[in-house]
Amino acid sequence: MKSRISAPRTAQRGVALVVVLLLLLLVTLLGLAAMRGTWLQERMSGNLRARSMAFQSAEAILREAEAYAANQRPVMPAAGSGCTAGLCGMPVNGASSAWETAGFWDNPGNYRVSNIREEGQTMGYVIEDMGKGEDVSDDCTTSIDMSASACSTTVQRYRITAFARLANGSEVTLQSRFQVQ
Asked: How confident is the model at residue 83 (pLDDT cuts 50, 70, 90)?
């Protein structure tokens, strides 16, 4: 009978096993890094979408507030008296606006609630009195002495601040300056 001759066990060192285990560890680490990168990109795109939705909501609220100011011509509180149901008096002596205080948007009595609001969202606006002024239109012609415009009118000026906080936590605040003749 033929016998098989095998290499003595002392000659085997298991180098292949160590190399394969190291390669397996390396591939696992690369896979985990790729998964983390994908997860991070997914979160970033979700946050971008949420902010975009909040921005669009705030823009719609701003247009709603401008229509309200143009059509209703609200009676504004006295200067320095703060806000009442979303109508704010003109800040005096460089004071900050009432809507800038902490927790202002947490109390619906401070602002006018928007018509587009849904459950779990904070959407509203404030209209601040910015005083009366002269509106000089670009298409008016000036008098011969160039001292005054022949068609200037007195307008009421407002600063409108719209705020949108969606259920997912994204927040956007927008402002516009608006005037009504």
From this structure: confident
| 126 residue type, one letter | V
Phi and psi at residue 134, to the nearest 5°: -95, 135
Query: What are the C-alpha distances in Å from 54 to residues 43, 149, 170?
Result: 16, 42, 6
Residues 71, 75, 179, 150, Cα dihedral to 10°: 100
Calpha distance 104→97 (Å, rounded): 11
State the DSSP H helix or E strand holding residue 23, giving kind and residue range, or none if neither: helix 15-72
Task: Write down the pTM of the prediction.
Answer: 0.71
Closest CA to 128 of 166, 154, 95: 95
How far apart CA 63 and CA 55 sit, in angstroms, is 12
